[in-house]
Specification:
The complex is a heterodimer of chains A (about 350) and B (about 1050).
Chain A (H helix, E strand, L loop, with lengths): L3 H6 L24 H27 L3 E5 L10 H4 L7 E9 L7 E8 L6 H4 L4 H4 L35 H4 L5 E8 L2 E4 L10 H7 L41 H7 L7 E8 L6 E9 L9 E8 L8 H30 L5
Antiparallel strand pairs in A: 1-8, 2-7, 3-6, 3-8, 4-5, 4-7
Chain B lengths: L1 H8 L9 E5 L32 H10 L2 H15 L7 H33 L2 E6 L2 E6 L8 E5 L7 E7 L5 E5 L1 H4 L4 E5 L10 H6 L2 E6 L9 E6 L7 E6 L3 E2 L4 E3 L3 E8 L5 H7 L7 H31 L3 H4 L8 H4 L3 H16 L7 H12 L1 H5 L13 E2 L13 E5 H5 E12 L2 E3 L1 H8 L4 H18 L10 H12 L3 E6 L2 E5 L5 E13 L4 E8 L4 E7 L1 H4 L8 H13 L2 E11 L1 H16 L10 E11 L3 H10 L3 E5 L4 H10 L8 E5 L7 H17 L6 E6 H8 L11 H11 L2 E5 L3 H12 L7 E5 L5 H6 L2 E4 L4 H6 L2 E2 L5 H39 L12 H11 L2 H9 L5 H6 L15 H25 L14 H23 L5 H23 L13 H6 L2 H28 L5 H6 L2
Parallel strand pairs in B: 15-25, 15-29, 25-28, 26-27, 27-28, 29-30, 30-31
Antiparallel strand pairs in B: 1-8, 2-3, 2-4, 4-13, 5-11, 5-13, 6-7, 6-12, 8-9, 9-10, 14-31, 16-17, 16-24, 18-19, 19-20, 20-21, 21-22, 22-23, 23-24
Classes of the chains: A alpha+beta (about 350), B alpha+beta (about 1050).
Pfam families (chain A): CDC50
Organism (chain A): Neogobius melanostomus (round goby)
Protein name (chain A): Cell cycle control protein
Chain lengths: ~350, ~1050
């Protein structure tokens, strides 16, 4: 800037005559004129209305059955279980009736409300190295491992490391559900498919079990999380590949929800639910009353655009109509301008 | 002995003494003269660089962190390092590091250029006389007192006193183009006692000291004395003046070699002293930018306070404060209440700190630095004759060029060509015109011929051309050429004798005895010559006002009338008077002169007869057109000149500053009027002005004397109120103002007066000479014209011709202002969009300071995803074409008074930002509401939520800029689509590659998973459309309501 010396030294030549230096680069200069904007608005409006209608209709055809089983009200079948004193392995069952076929695949969700999985301290409370199966992080090592973010769920009273450590893992949802169809007074269990309910990458890449066989040996010298009834390597007694850190339910839980009212996928019912009476047996373990939370189950089927969500379709319809209205308004304004004598 | 010791103790104070003693050749004076006290002078090293290799990093960092914005980010960074904050220190550390690095690289590059320039100057070879031999050394090794030999076409290495030259008359010719831009050859004189030295040995034998003032920056002022010691004789003292001082930077011409002694070296040379005074001007845009920043800082703090308070309110119930699934650690529980509060507040501050656009300052700086090249590159502002284009001395004021309300222009040389042509002369009331004169003159009396020859003598004497007619003053050139037409040809100056070829082909010789140079205080110049007949004559030339009072005989009245008549016609007049001196008179004058020179003072003269020479000063090409455009653009043009009223007014008419319909008020010659007279006059003017403000255009002519009377605070008329206010009121109502007979300082006063008035208008001063420098420095923007480098150096912009003002203001200024205004507003907008969703998210995550976006996104948003499009936009945007801007000067009014950076506009942008942020956040919120996004029933987590918001955000702010772009060059296409593409590719890579067990695991596959769902795509499209819709509708409606060219502008201002 204050480079007088330099300027004095430079040979004062004629400046370069290029399009760039002379600010004459060829340029496209779009003008938002009526001839372009009004048809554009009409087109966009029509397209949006089209999409909106498609979305809305699709959404309308989807079914969602949501039921609360917290047991706050006395009439609720789970009222007895909601009492914190009697909570150990309390069972209750929820009956419902479908008057027509619930087309498959049906997705079976559990939902929690007023539950802040997105709290910062809660969310960071885990040890990635542990969860990717690094055995170095399974042992107590000079208060460095496991990660200090796991506090206060890092060591038990005997200074043994907790695996998996941290609040997030510790508070894993532990209600379990069995669904029965009532056929002529006989309970017939509906098969629930627990495979592939978590992200493929979570199951196959992100979370890893330590490569120790059998898996339980890897957990020697560690303790299970405080609130867990079973250690991590025994989460699913029926399927050995569904244990440890790659247990599907565990993975679903570990993917934090964005908002305080959320659903998480529990199981899939591939064949759908025929019309009839059903009974959902719940083993009620998870306390939510303390923080005014609600527990829900939801059955839903899914289309190409995901679950039932009328918002997107309505939003498209509203914006599309708004575009059409605007194009009419603009047309009127242009017309009025062109016809009025004092234009320009 | 006592005196000696006292002096020795006083050595420390020596540098404060207002004179210095230089020992030529470092030789001690003979004993008894004065004690030899070595003074310490700097060596001849020129240092224009700010940094050295070693101190660059600490010094540069210190300078950068003195900026409030950088310091703020440093504090945030340190807070992040110290306490447990929601975001990693990288998120603010990396952008800060980036900003600091870019600025450091830019400043380092500039300093490196300066170092290189310094080096080449400091290492150029110099010949020094040592022990009777010429020794070649490097420039920076020169010391004060060294005797230097300079050859033809070499540049003087430092300020030197000429001792002797290869020309036997002891003169040398010098061109000072690089100093003051005057291309003429100037003559410098050696001290008579030393001019005989021709060899090194002789020069080395010189025993002398020079006493002179301490260095000062005025190029044309120097006083000193040389004491020459000869064996056993009293030392001889001779006066030294500016005519003996060779300035660093000037070049020796037409002289084989000279010997000279160094008196000022290095940073003490006049050239270096002149470089140091750099103006620190801040532009209006920068001021609004800082104001906006403070507003955002307030928003930031209030956001943090609101969230902290709400957090406490929300956590009132212990179940919420610490639900069973999220227990606190013991350490946290035991923390003190106040400490916890501060901790939480700071955590929110850190979370929202990105609302302050970290990269705005660096982008603005880059924009100004790079953008200023467009001025230097502009071919339209390249002048063929001068071979020079426009220069930018400070790029900080680029946008100020688009904001000018008052233009103060010098007349001579700026508005007019300053190339004189001799038109006529009037001797004792008789008028002669060159073309006709040759014929008529033959029949004239000898008396007239004598007069004629006197003019001619005078001409040659004053002109002192070296060879051909090259002279420092354009009127002298005109005189010499005019006289040639009359048949008197100036041949040469030889041995102090001027030779003139008269029209009978005889050579007349005049001996040049004394030259008393022109200065702006006396406004005249005199010479004393002796004609071949032995008669002594004194000639004096100067402005009529300084000559007429001194004339004692002759037909003064007729001449005066003629002068005035000519001045009205727009001709420039010059008066010459002469007096013949008797030998006794001469001796006395000579004595006084020598005395006066020694005493470093000025002197008085009395003269005898009046001549009048009239020349025409042509208007510069397209000056009138330019002034007209400036008027149309809503600028008020004031002409400030030292010329007399009639001449100046004629020029003003010619340049269309005054139109014929203009109603002129003249306030003139106040010195003859009592004070309250001016007062009533002013009141009358004001009254009339306010009465007919819309039906008539007013012009005002005021002269320097009246002006000083007006500006002088007058205790007597305290009851009458302040003249200053009234004067200002009048001036604001006048469309054109001419101030004539102005002293340089008065010009600056006027600028200051206008600057300090109520509306604080932006002023621009344009001038070409040293007398305009104070005005140029005072004004917001200083622009210089052709004549002087002195002005060019002190100006902010230098343009070759007055007509280029049109392009630099109407086109470049307009563009720069539009660009920087959009840049500033957009920066705040995009950061509101960025951070406001994060603020909203706090309401849904229990005020737990959970960041919405991933670390990488927080870090890179400002420095890479959204930085380049706006930078390039601010370099190449043209909302209307160059031709339109030139054709329609009134477009300039659209951006007057900082219209694009006023609070309503700022509010509009901020509201748009908040609106967009609300759309992003709640759009995503409702989409995520208890439902799945995918066709396999899987649920998305919080990072997908953040990524969705962020993707919409990046696309929206980039497309918003695309909507604002009116000029799509390939560069715009490249950076806009390129940075969107970069964002997508970056996100794919960031979420697609596992790089050890980096914490990027939280983002692993999130972006791809999001893109694999149809509703995500649909919602991205929907949200972008909704966010952009209000802006599009606003633009279209604005266009519909007034489909003129000015529309984009009018709409921007809402």
């Amino acid at each position: 800037m204050d480079s007088n010396y330099i300027e004095n030294q430079e040979v004062e030549n004629r400046p370069d005559n290029t399009a760039f230096t002379q600010q004459r680069l060829p340029a496209w200069q779009p003008i938002l004129s009526a001839g372009i904007v009004i048809p554009l608005f009409v087109l966009v409006g029509l397209a949006f209305i089209g999409i909106g209608v498609a979305l809305f209709v699709t959404s309308r055809n989807l079914h969602v059955l949501e039921m609360d089983y917290t047991g706050v009200e006395k009439t609720s079948p789970c009222f007895s279980c909601s009492d914190p004193i009697k909570q150990k392995n309390c069972k209750c069952s929820l009956s419902f009736e479908l008057d027509k076929l619930f087309e498959g695949p049906v997705f079976f969700y559990y939902g929690l409300t007023n539950y802040f999985q997105n709290q910062r301290a809660y969310g960071v409370s885990k040890d990635y190295n542990q969860l990717s199966g690094d055995l170095d992080y399974f042992t107590f090592f000079f208060s460095i491992v496991p990660d200090s973010t796991c506090k206060p769920y890092r060591y038990d009273v005997n200074n043994k490391p907790i695996v998996p450590c941290g609040s997030l893992a510790n508070s894993m949802f532990n209600d379990t559900f069995n669904l029965y169809q009532m056929k002529n007074g006989v309970k017939e269990e509906v098969p629930l498919d627990g495979k592939g309910i978590s992200w493929w990458t979570d199951y196959n890449i992100k979370y890893r079990n330590p490569s120790v066989n059998p898996l339980r040996n890897a957990f020697n010298g560690t303790v299970k999380p405080l609130y867990w009834s079973k250690p991590a390597y025994e989460l699913d007694p029926t399927d050995t590949a569904n244990n440890g850190f790659i247990n599907q339910d565990f993975l679903v839980w570990m993917r934090r929800s964005a908002l305080p009212n959320f659903r998480k996928l529990y199981r899939r019912i591939t064949d759908g639910l025929p019309a009839g009476n059903y009974s959902l047996e719940i083993s009620y373990n998870y306390p939510v009353i303390a923080f005014d939370g609600k527990k829900k189950v939801a059955f839903s089927n899914v289309s190409w655009m995901g679950g039932k969500n009328e918002f997107l379709g309505i939003a498209y319809l509203v914006i599309g109509s708004l575009c059409l209205v605007m194009s009419v308004v603009m047309l009127i304004i242009y017309h009025w301008r062109n016809s009025s004598p004092d234009a320009n | 002995l006592y005196r000696r010791t006292q002096k020795m103790f006083c050595v420390g104070e020596e540098s404060w003494v207002d004179s210095r003693t230089v020992y030529i050749g470092h030789k001690e004076p003979p004993p008894g003269a004065e004690a030899y006290i070595p003074q310490r002078y700097p060596d001849n090293r020129i240092v224009s660089s700010k940094y050295t290799f070693w101190n660059f990093i600490p010094k540069n960092l210190f300078e950068q962190f003195r900026r409030i914005a950088n310091f703020y980010f440093l504090v945030i960074f340190l807070v992040q390092l110290i306490i447990d904050t929601p975001t990693s220190p990288v998120t603010s550390g990396l952008p800060l590091f980036f900003v600091i690095t870019v600025t450091a690289i830019k400043q380092g590059y500039e300093d490196w250029l300066r170092h290189k320039a310094d080096c080449s100057i400091n290492e150029c070879p110099v010949d020094v006389v040592q022990q009777g031999k010429v020794v070649r050394t490097q420039s920076h090794k020169l010391r004060v007192g060294d005797v230097v030999m300079v050859r033809e076409d070499e540049t003087f290495p430092c300020d030197l006193i000429l001792l002797s030259s290869s020309r036997h008359d002891g003169t040398c010719y010098v061109t000072t183009t690089s100093l003051d831009g005057e291309s003429s050859h100037k003559t410098y004189y050696a001290v008579p006692d030393t001019m005989a030295f021709t060899t090194e040995q002789e020069v080395d034998s010189l025993h002398a000291t020079i006493e002179c003032e301490q260095p000062q920056p005025d190029l044309y002022k120097f006083v000193g004395r040389i004491n020459i010691y000869k064996d056993k004789e009293e030392p001889v003292a001779r006066p030294l003046g500016a005519e003996n001082l060779l300035l660093r930077g000037a070049t020796l011409k037409n002289t084989q070699h000279i010997y000279a002694v160094a008196i000022y070296t290095g940073m003490e040379t006049k050239m270096a002293l002149n470089y140091q005074s750099k103006s620190q001007k801040r532009s209006a845009v920068e001021k609004s930018m800082n104001a906006f920043l403070i507003v955002y800082l307030c928003i930031l703090i209030s956001k943090a306070v609101i969230n902290t308070v709400l957090k406490y309110a929300w956590q009132w119930s212990p179940d919420r404060d610490e639900p069973w699934y999220n227990h606190r650690t013991e350490h946290e529980r035991q923390r003190h209440v106040v400490c916890l509060f501060i901790h939480r507040f700071l955590a929110f501050m850190v979370l929202f700190n990105y609302i302050i656009p970290v990269s705005m300052y660096v982008t603005v700086e880059m924009q100004k630095f790079l953008g200023s090249y467009f001025i230097t590159w502009d071919e339209d502002m390249f002048d063929e004759e001068l071979g020079e284009g426009a220069q930018v001395n400070t790029s900080d004021l680029n946008e100020e060029l688009g904001q000018v309300e008052y233009v103060f222009t010098d007349k001579t040389g700026t508005l007019t060509e300053n190339n004189m042509e001799f038109i006529e002369c009037c001797v004792d009331g008789n008028v002669y015109i060159p073309h006709a004169i040759c014929v008529r003159m033959l029949s004239r009396t000898t008396f007239f011929l004598d007069e004629c020859s006197f003019i001619k003598d005078f001409t040659s004497v004053c002109g002192r051309p070296t060879s051909f007619y090259i002279s420092s003053s354009p009127d002298e050139v005109a005189l010499v050429e005019g006289m040639k037409k009359l048949g008197y040809t100036y041949l040469r100056l030889r041995d102090n004798h001027m030779e003139i070829l008269n029209k009978d082909d005889e050579i007349e010789r005049f001996e040049l005895l004394h030259v008393l140079n022109f200065d702006s205080v006396r406004r005249r110049m005199s010479v004393i010559v002796r004609s071949s007949s032995g008669e002594c004559l004194l000639f004096c030339k100067g402005a009529d006002s300084s000559i007429f009072p001194r004339v004692v005989s002759g037909k003064v009245e007729q001449v005066k009338a003629r002068v005035e008549q000519n001045a009205v016609e727009g001709l420039r007049t010059l008066c010459v008077a002469y007096k013949s001196l008797t030998e006794a008179d001469y001796q006395e004058a000579c004595f006084h002169l020598t005395e006066a020179k020694l005493a470093l003072q000025d002197r008085e003269q009395r003269l005898a007869q009046a001549y009048d020479i009239i020349e025409r000063d042509w208007l510069q090409e397209k000056a009138a057109d330019t002034i007209e455009s400036l008027h149309k653009a809503g600028m008020k043009v004031w002409v400030l000149t030292g010329d007399k009223m009639e001449t100046a007014a004629a020029t003003c008419y010619a340049s269309k500053l005054f139109r014929r319909t203009l109603y002129l008020w003249v306030c003139y010659s106040a010195n003859t009027r009592p004070h309250n007279h001016i007062y009533t006059l002013l009141h009358l003017v004001l009254h009339r002005c306010s009465l007919s403000v819309d039906c008539l255009d007013f012009g005002l002519i005021i002269d320097g004397a009246t002006l000083s009377a007006v500006l002088k605070p007058n205790p007597e008329s305290a009851g009458h109120g302040n003249y200053r206010e009234i004067f200002l009121e009048i001036c604001r109502n006048c469309s054109a103002v001419l101030c004539c007979r102005m002293a340089p300082l008065q010009k600056a006063q006027i600028v200051k007066l206008i600057k300090a008035s109520k509306e604080h208008p932006i002023t621009l001063a344009i001038g070409d000479g040293a007398n305009d420098v104070s005005m140029i420095q005072e004004a917001h923007v200083g622009v210089m014209g052709k004549e002087g480098r002195q002005a060019a150096r002190n100006s902010d912009y230098a343009i070759p011709k007055f007509k280029h003002l049109k392009k630099i203001l109407l086109v470049h200024g307009h563009y720069y202002y539009i660009r920087i205004a959009e840049l500033v507003q957009y920066f705040f907008y995009k950061n509101v969009c960025f951070i406001f969703p994060q603020f909203l998210y706090q309401f849904f995550c229990g005020f737990s300071q959970q960041p919405l976006y991933d670390t990488a996104y927080l870090t890179l948003y400002n420095i890479s995803f959204t930085s380049l499009p706006i930078l390039l936009y601010s370099l190449v945007e043209q909302h209307v074409s160059v031709e339109t801007l030139k054709r329609e000067p009134s477009l300039y009014r659209d951006i007057a008074k900082n219209s694009l950076l006023r609070w309503p506009v700022f509010l509009y942008w901020t509201c748009l930002g908040v609106f967009d942020a609300v759309i992003f956040f709640f759009g995503a919120y409702f989409l995520f509401d208890n439902t799945t996004f995918t066709s396999n029933g899987q649920m998305f987590g919080n990072w997908t939520f953040g990524t969705l918001v962020f993707t919409v955000l990046v696309f929206t702010v980039t497309l918003k800029l695309a909507l604002d772009t009116h000029h799509w060059t390939w560069i715009n296409h490249f950076v806009i689509w390129g940075s969107l593409l970069f964002y997508v590719i970056f996100s794919l890579l960031w979420g697609g590659i596992i790089w050890y067990n980096f914490c990027l695991l939280q983002m692993y596959y999130v972006f791809m998973q999001m893109l694999s769902s149809g509703p995500a795509w649909l919602s991205i499209i929907l949200l972008i459309t909704v966010s952009l819709l209000p802006d599009v509708i606003k633009k279209v409606l604005c266009r519909a309501i007034s489909p003129l060219l000015t529309v984009p502008m009018a709409c921007r201002t809402i």
